[in-house]
Amino acid sequence: METPAKRARGKEAKSWRNPIRTQREEIEDLLAKNLRLCKEIPDMLPHVYQRVTTGSR
Predict the structure, then answer these.
(1) Cα(48)–Cα(34) distance, rounded to whole angstroms?
(2) From CA 27, how far away is CA 31, in angstroms rounded?
(3) Distance CA 43, CA 4 (A)
(4) How far apart are CA 32 and CA 38, in angstroms?
(5) Phi, psi at residue 25, to the nearest 5°?
(6) Which helix (H) or strand (E) is 4 found in, with range?
(7) Would you say 45 and 51 are in contact if contact means Cβ atoms under 8 Å apart?
């Protein structure tokens, strides 16, 4: 039976039971975020370049 302390820990309790799977999920999430940012950066560049060259902040 799960104790309230274990239930309160939630993800910690889960990672204690299966640390490798949890770490893998976290890494996959970070890679997905990284890929999304890499796709968004070129869209942001013209706006940033315009702000830098015109000197407006």
Answers:
(1) 20
(2) 6
(3) 47
(4) 10
(5) -60, -45
(6) helix 4-9
(7) no
As a whole number, mean pLDDT of residues 31-47 equals 88
Q: Which helix (H) or strand (E) holds 8?
A: helix 4-9
- 13-36: per-residue pLDDT in tens? 555 565 677 888 999 999 999 999
In the chain, count H helices and then E strands.
3, 0
pLDDT > 70? residue 57:
no
For residue 55, what are its two tokens?
Answer: 């000197």
Confidence (pTM): 0.41
Within a 10 A sphere around the Cβ of 14, how many other Cβ atoms?
13
User: pLDDT over 70 for what percent of the chain?
Assistant: 61
